Amino acid sequence: MPVPDVKEKFSGVVHAVTIGATSEQGGSRTRTVTIGGETGLPMLSFEAEYPHRPAFALEVNTAGADDWHSQARKHVGEVAADLEKWAARCEEWGADLVCLHLDAAHPDLGGRSPEECADDVKRVLGATGLPLIVWGADVDEVDNNVLPKCTQAAAGENCLFGTAKEANYRTLAASCLADSHKIIAEAPSDINLSKQLHILLGDVGVNVQNIVMHPTCGALGFGMVYIYTTIERGRIAALGGDVLMQQPVVVNMGKEIGRVKEATSPDEDAPQWGKLDVRAPLWEAATAVGYMEAGAELFIMRNPEALQQAKTAVEALWPKA
Amino acid sequence: MPRVTFHPAGVTVEVESGASLLDAARQAQIPIRNDCGGQGVCGRCLIEVKRGEVTRLKSRHRLGPGRDLACRTLAAEADIEVFLPRESRELEVEVTVRRVEPFPPDYPPPGGMVERAQIEAAPPSLDDNVADGQRLLRHLREWRPGEYHIPLRVLSDLPVRLREVDWRPEVALSVEPWGHRVLHVGPQTGRPCCMMAVDIGTTAIKARLLAPESGWVASCYNSQVMFGPDVISRIIHCQRNEGGACRELQESVVADINLLLDALLEASGLRPEDIWGVVVSGNTTMIHLFLGLCPVWIRREPYVGCAYHLPPIRPKDVGVQTNPAGRIFCLPSVSSFVGADITGGVLATGLAERQKPAALIDLGTNGEIAIGCREFLVCCSASAGPAFEGGGSASGTRARDGAIDSVWSDGAVQWKTIGDAAPLGICGTGYIDLLATLLREGMMDKTGRFVEGAPGVRREDGELQYLLVPADRAAVDRDIVLTQADVENLVRAKGAIYAAGSVLLQSLGMEWGDLANIMLAGGFGESLDKDNAVTIGLLPDVPRPRIEFVGNTSLQGAVMVAENAQNYWKARDIAAKMTYFELSTHPDFMDQFVSACFLPHTDAEKFPSVAGPAQ
Amino acid sequence: MALTGLDIYKLLPRTNCGDCGVPTCLAFAMKVAAKQAALDECPHVSEESQEAAGAASQPPQKLVTIGSGDRALKIGNETVMFRHDERFHHPCGIALLVNDTDDLDARMETVRSLSFERIGQIIDVDTVALNCASGDGEKLQEAAGRIQTELSLPVVLIADSADKLRPAAEGLSDGRPLLWERGGPSDALVELAASAKLPVVVEGDLEKCDADTQKAKGAGVEEMVLCPGEVSPLETLQFLTVTRRATLRRTYRPLGYPVLVRAWAQDPVQQSLEGCHYVDKYAGIVVLEVDSPEYVLPVLVTRQGIYIDPQVPVQVEAKVHEINNPTETSPLIVTTNFSLTYYSVLGEVEASRVPARILTVDTKGTSVLTAWAADEFGPEQIKDAIEKSGVFDQLGEGYRKPIIPGLVAVISGELREELEQEVIVGPKEASGLGRFLNNEWPKLVG
Prior knowledge:
The structure holds three protein chains of three kinds.
Chain A: E1 17-19, E2 33-35, E3 55-61, H1 70-76, H2 83-92, E4 97-101, H3 114-127, E5 132-135, H4 140-153, E6 160-164, H5 170-179, E7 182-186, H6 191-203, E8 211-214, H7 224-239, E9 250-252, H8 254-257, H9 261-264, H10 276-294, E10 298-301, H11 304-317
Parallel strand pairs in A: 3-4, 3-10, 4-5, 5-6, 6-7, 7-8, 9-10
Antiparallel strand pairs in A: 1-2
Helix pairs in contact in A: 2-3, 3-4, 4-5, 7-10, 10-11
Chain B: E1 3-7, E2 11-14, H1 21-27, E3 46-51, E4 54-56, E5 67-69, E6 73-75, E7 80-83, H2 86-89, E8 96-99, E9 114-118, H3 132-143, E10 148-149, H4 152-155, H5 158-164, E11 170-176, E12 179-186, E13 194-200, E14 204-210, E15 216-221, H6 231-240, H7 242-268, E16 275-282, H8 284-291, H9 315-318, E17 327-330, H10 340-349, E18 358-362, E19 367-372, E20 377-382, E21 403-409, E22 413-417, E23 425-426, H11 428-440, E24 457-460, E25 463-469, E26 480-483, H12 484-507, E27 518-521, H13 530-535, E28 547-551, H14 553-563, H15 565-577, E29 579-581, H16 589-596
Parallel strand pairs in B: 1-7, 10-12, 13-16, 16-17, 18-27, 20-29, 21-23, 27-28
Antiparallel strand pairs in B: 1-2, 3-5, 3-7, 4-6, 8-15, 9-11, 11-12, 13-14, 14-15, 18-19, 19-20, 21-22, 24-25, 25-26
Chain C: H1 5-11, H2 25-33, H3 47-57, E1 63-66, E2 73-76, E3 93-99, H4 104-113, E4 115-118, E5 121-124, E6 127-131, H5 137-151, E7 155-159, H6 162-171, E8 178-181, H7 187-196, E9 200-203, H8 206-218, E10 224-227, H9 233-250, E11 260-262, H10 268-280, E12 285-288, H11 293-306, E13 320-323, E14 332-336, H12 339-352, E15 356-361, H13 368-373, H14 379-389, E16 403-404, H15 412-419, E17 424-425, H16 433-445
Parallel strand pairs in C: 3-6, 3-12, 6-7, 7-8, 9-10, 11-12, 14-15, 16-17
Antiparallel strand pairs in C: 1-2, 4-5, 13-15
């Protein structure tokens, strides 16, 4: 009896989403990044197509890096006070994209005005040729004031803006539509909530092919397996033909790694865990690699060393297009 | 804004500072005694402020220590806790009596749970000198073969009675698990042998009189509501105060039933002695509380009640004021959260005798779903809350005259009330229509969030709400509105029902489309719009003729048992045959529930007939 | 195909006799379908029915036991491709590669040190892959014997020929080592494994594994473990997926065995990441060469996560969680230990940037309302949790005011009496916490 052929052909495809616009496309990026497009579960090249590799972004934060854990801070420390240098350095570190977090817009972190935030976006765009992700302050009222100015400031650059949430999606959706950006739809670890949000965004005119979804994120050993399963279930549904699940997946990991003791405790507190300078980046890379296994395509990280490690792993694993 | 918590109900509401506590109580839907409309005149809305600061207006009444009048006491800035003393809770229960299709003149037919036999006995003689008791039994067996039992109470004056009526007595009998019981022996009266069927709902109680040519149905709110809006909070009340609280709840429901009885007797011109039997249906907790059984273990793992099959009792055991020699029967329950109401519903709809599987959905406060046919019978509970019975909503009301039971749009949103009376509030079918209409008109999104700026949508206290009827057109002195919180409750309630049904079907390897019928039961209105119920995803998108609104099947089941004792045995078989599914621990339930908490549903392909929203 | 409840119901007598301890036949059938009961627990089920059900219920993937005693490694018998379809049943072995020429005392000490406690569980390297680097079967046997007695751990014996495995296999068969003849198994090893009744590794590509397992089975070997050999990570991953699929989706029993893989990368970071991958995607044993904790720990934590039963509500530890460095004037928020509930609250508190404590009460991992309804989150339980945690000692006078979820406002009065402290009713949803902590809390304590 021959080994049975267990290839699976799926009816659905993950949408390919391109972020960034070059000068020919009306923007000023030196390159664009496309994620998605897979026709099967991760890395099964004997049955499916993998036209685009997962992409890695490094976080740049308007509130600086003072509250980052030591191993992430040690890399960005010298540039953390200068958004432009920081953004430029990301390119050197091998990032595919820059993710600008607008935390300083939070009232407790300086409450930067919408205009100032828009200026931050412009300066970062000027400092790097990489495609840009812009992440709000995660406070509804603040985001509704700040993000429309930022989408406007980045008009033509085809950025990825986040996040739209079930309770607060109209403003960002309208701004992204007006200024032609891609949008991150964030729903906490539940495929039904993700689908609902995509329906709502569709109802206000967003093309579901312009959505990247964020099922929220937890670090390895700290809630990751929940989200791993959410992503995996969503991907199976997507390939089964569920158009509301066919969005590529982004995970915003940087902050999450800081919650895990194994990744942050100093050597003297935890000698049994081995060396912190190895533990910290490896933990972040292992988190990324785990999510890739579930189906995530875009990783927002903090530690450049971890980014390198994860990219090397992708090199070894990801099927050649 | 200060929060006011009312005890013993434990209900909390947020009010404006400066609002009277009477208004707060109304907002919390706490029935509080008040005869003057809050003018400080009647002195009945007594409260005790247990905590927090209040402003006391001058009062003409001299009140006991620690007592205030709710209408003369205003909330200040801080949160307040208020206790309602018994006097102010003893409100006049508002009883509604309606006329429905009357019974025939020869009703009830022979073979009911209680009956009267006209016996013509041969007097004893030296040749035929069996004892009086045996003599009566001999004639009863001639009247109808079977087992009979004459209790000591009847035997004690039997010789006198038989001789008084010259051996031609009228004998009242009841059907018991082991045979017939002789309830009473007396002269021939020529009066009918009447009964009453009662459905004790968590939110409302309904009773029907079983008498010749009677078409009377009476209903009222279950005044246990003041101890808490749902069964869990009432069970907690019992737990808190040991035996006394259990009795308190029992007295409360029995008082309601006696009020309904009075209303029915008054409408029909009958006397309490004419009512020989009462058949009671209701969820497991309600039956426990009616009988004074401790329900505490119903809520605790592994969720067991005191008893599901209950013996017949005497009216005086619980205090029901029918003929004291009569009998009270309770329909059997299935489990702690699937009660006699669903047993009655299965009986009334003939679910257990069908060729093809069908579903019965009881949309009560404690929603229950049964699916089955001749082959099998399964059920589950789906805790929907009182939303569809008008409970817990800003302008909710039960289905009665003045309840808005139907809403539609012809460009502008329109409504009508039951009996075309001035609007009091919105009942279940009104809510179904209203949600569907607002959704269709693009005035709310598919999560149920109002769209700011849509006509009729306004912001009150920071929250969006929809104004359906302004106070000046309403029969109540405030606007009739749909709040965002109401919508959330309704969406959760319908999500729970749909998800429970889906998971139950899935456990059977079936889908909604495999069901020949989907019957919706409950007292939430009279004019169910099937399309609207599907539009909001309360019911599955199946061909509409399969959907049937069957009304209060719990009460119908109780009527069927009362009038035909065979149905009593059927009900017991149904309860024994029914397989109960615990969904709260089912791995798929949460998933299905989240999926169903969307309008109509996250998986739009399950609702192909529901069009997209107006952009 | 698994039988549905109704399928099983049709195999039962349908008398609702209750002799099985379940009230109705259908309820019993549902339990059998959910694998919570076995069909033969019905005393009246017919033999024909048992047979009909048996064929459908035989697990297609073999359960393989390596080692003996408490620390025996049981792998295989997996039933699903994705953990959300049911769960992954038998956590894979994480094996450390040891040469029989190494300083065994030092290596065993290293293995012992790779053991950690995490969320109340011990996670450790639980297998030793012992390589016959000496080329001497006697030496291999001696080393394996020491590991079995001194570590009590299961052993995978690796050698390039059956001869070298023979002494250990025959001498230590009670300890059930797994025999891995590189590139094997040869006929000689098959014969050895069959007579010693030991599990054996079948190495090679799919076709070779397919042929060799059938041959070995024919020769009397019961327990086998597949291995793709030294191929790229991508090929390894695909081998793992294809064998699991063939087994579960096609019930193809020749590939119905767990799989042993080795993380071959030389760079320790990449080797660790490779190990994480294989753990997530179907490995039965992962062999690592890296032996420092910083590289091994991520693999162990990955295994702990992926084998969590997704149908059991995940709980967080019931304790006081400190957020944003709270002080003695910080709010105390009380909630349940259902992880989703906790993480929602945590997320909102963090976003609010208000330093706070979250006390999670042990409600067996149920959410607020469910726990309240089932009498797991009432005044007594909250009081006990507060007292046990000693959290009031960390709070200043005037700040010992627990904030309870708005959904259980009804218990505030009683809780206040129990605690003899003010109790604050918080918002109904976690999403209201940010506003509450920033705007209302200061007024309530100020």
